[in-house]
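Quick log. Single chain, no ligands specified.
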Amino acid sequence: ILEAEGFSGRPVLWHCFSGDAVDFLDRFLANGWHISIPGPVTYPANHDLREAVKRIPPDRLMVETDCPYLSPVPWRGKPNEPALVAFTAETVALERGMDPAELWTLCGDNTRRFFNAPAKGL
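-> predicted structure:
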């Protein structure tokens, strides 16, 4: 529907990407859209999502909580909260071969740019 309505190349954030359909990831990326990764990336059996994380261009990657759902390990099955996104970010960083602090900065910069929010420290 988004493609048919002309959203290719427009600012779209794909919320809670699950990684279960590589074809969808390729379409999202071809359209220039941003991808947000939730807590299930930390689940041991979620190989597809961790593989997808490696393919997302750095300038279009974000992490999220999806509170109160999709808590990361070790809080899986309990209510999610914003502080737990650090566990999601750590897993994403490890999958991409990055330092977690570097990934945290990258995702923060991407989020501010996407939402046209003020630069850090202002």
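The mean pLDDT is 93.
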